[in-house]
What does this fold into?
Amino acid sequence: MRGLSPPNERKVPQPRQAQVPRSGGSPRVPVLFRHPMAGNIRCHLSSTGGLHVHAARGTNETNLMISDQRDRGRPTGPLLEWGVSRLLLLMLVFRLVTLPVSDGNAEEVALYHKWLEVFQSGSFPVGDETWQYPPGMSLALLAPVLLPVLTYQHAFYVTAFLVDAAVFAALWRTGRQPGRSMMGAWVWTIGVPLLGSMPYARLDMTVTGICVAALLWLPTRPRVGGALVGVGATMKLWPVLVLLGVGPGGTMRTVWARALGAAVALTLMLAAVLPGAWSFLSGQRARGLQIESFGALPFHVARHFGWPGQVELAYGAMQFTGPYAELVAYALPALSVFALGGLVLLRWHLPRSFFTGAAPSVLGLAAVLVCIFTSRVFSPQFMLWAVGLLAVGTTWRSSGLRTTARLVLAACGFTLVIYPFTYFDVMASTWSAIITLAVRDALLVTAAVHLLRTLRTAARAAGDQSAEASGLVPRPQSAEETDEVVATR
It folds into this structure.
């Protein structure tokens, strides 16, 4: 035990002679000795190979468990659950099992195939209002072509499955390392099927996989992690938000430089090969208020009290049209900028001790949730972003994301109810659909508030040693793991 003996102590107290079992068994023979500073100390091995320490001096008592276990539960983690759930997802997308409602997967992948044909003709889909992605997304559309024995639709599903498998393998391997947790693999295993088969029929699986890889590389290989963030940002802009969690100093400059360099180089290369690389900006600028978004909930309620608005298909999504809907759609982007500015300001007030390996995932998740709240669009695949960020964040035992993870996973379940099971009810603004939307929104708001309160507490306590108990720095485990500290040094 480091730190119990004073520096000038010459004589080390000798423990009593006792035979301590090497492996599981009962009874446990304790080792007892008296220390001049700590008082009476009693040690014994647990059935799991951990060392229990009880120190008592007068009326003060301390219990400590030092364990060499890498995680609780099965050493194999959620391998079985991942395999069974992914088999079901593959059966759904290949239509070996069908749902009572249309999931829209075939139509979505058919649209991707149409874009691929435009790429093969030598241009980006200029003039197509449904094309709303940065240039790098063309690479994700081309990836299924590497499986030539399959149709594009089936190859797309297999590609998504392979990305899913790679993410799970990386999280599982990370969870087995000292000081890390298998909870990240569990979050990914549960979160993806809670969104139904939709993740296997969306481009967001590839982007999320790249972002997960970047987050796992950042603590040990910041240059590689930064470059992967840049690649992900050329497909969708949200991966750049994880850079908020990179600590100040030389590492931050290195990561930002690599991310910017990779993004600029890849974008310029694609723009040189295919004209129309910036056509996606016009599609984003003109989008309206999607019926699943946070800002749309008041309009759903207003329809029951005489609001004359309608639901129309535009820019590949169902949107509200009518009085004030366009005004809200234009105001929300400005609110996004304001909210992100506040988060950046909060980030600069965080102490240096806050920026551990979990910080990019946590601050990235906070930024993504803020963007979801203030966006005029809320597609179900947005939840996949949050699941990926949570999965990486919860691989760190000290992340403090357990409560946030439970709330977001619950919101994923309600998202599945909204799309595809009750989407026609959402279009009709029925009361049952309004309640479902409200519950999902409330879960996400609660998750974000809990996360932002943790960040604010850490910022206010900057410079105080007590900040270590509330931030993302190493600390004892949560209430569920009372009196246990996992020693990884």
About this structure: The longest strand covers residues 39-45. The beta strands are 31-35, 39-45, 51-57, 60-66, 289-290, 310-314, 317-321. The two ends are 11 Å apart (CA to CA).
